[in-house]
Amino acid sequence: MLHRDLLKENEEISLDEKKLLEEFSQKLAKEGQIAGLVLISCNRWQLFVRHFLTGMARGLGFALGSTLVLGLFLAGLYTLCEALILMKLPFVTEWLEKFVLMLKSSSGS
After folding, report:
1. Phi and psi (nearest 5°) for 74?
2. What are the φ and ψ backbone dihedral angles of 87, each rounded to 5 degrees?
3. Cα–chain-centroid distance for residue 64?
4. pLDDT band with cut points at 50, 70 and 90 for residue 59
5. 66 touches 73 (CB < 8 A)
6. What is the C-alpha separation between 35 and 45, in angstroms, rounded?
7. Is the distance from CB of 85 to CB of 93 less than 8 angstroms?
8. How many CA atoms lie within 13 A of 43 on its CB side?
9. Does residue 93 contact residue 84 with C-beta atoms inside 8 Å?
10. CB contact set of 81 (below 8 Å; sequence gap of 6+)
């Protein structure tokens, strides 16, 4: 029933209104470059390559960003541990000295 109602509504549109709608849709297509997106989505090979390269770039960015953030976090933690060791707090100092020695031995320096 809905399709019949839509067809009736389309039949009632005058030719001038149809031309205005076509001109408006063409203007949107030119400005928004919708036609280019439709052509790209129709070619499955181009779409696959585009999505593959996008995924590779996102993965590389994630790896580099997380490495940088984790490195900065560990450097800050190491500095904090050294500062706490210098404060000579009982029980904490012994544990932190072991932790810093473990970090130094694992980094190879």
Report:
1. -65, -35
2. -75, -10
3. 14
4. very high
5. no
6. 17
7. yes
8. 9
9. yes
10. 96, 99, 100
Instruction: Give the three-state DSSP class for 33.
Output: coil
Angle at 21 between CA 17 and CA 25, to 5 degrees: 175
What is the predicted pLDDT for the residue at 17? Answer: 72
CB of 78 closer than 8 Å to CB of 100: yes
What is the pTM assigned to this prediction?
0.48
Residue 78 in tokens: 């190491």
> What is the percentage of the chain residues whose pLDDT exceeds 90?
21
By the 8 A CB rule, do 41 and 47 touch? Answer: yes
pLDDT digits (tens, 9 = 90+) for 29-56: 666 666 666 656 667 787 788 889 999 9
Q: In the numeric block, which tokens belong to residue 30?
A: 């030119």
Chain-centroid distance, C-alpha 36 = 23
Q: What is the DSSP-derived secondary structure letter of residue 94?
A: H
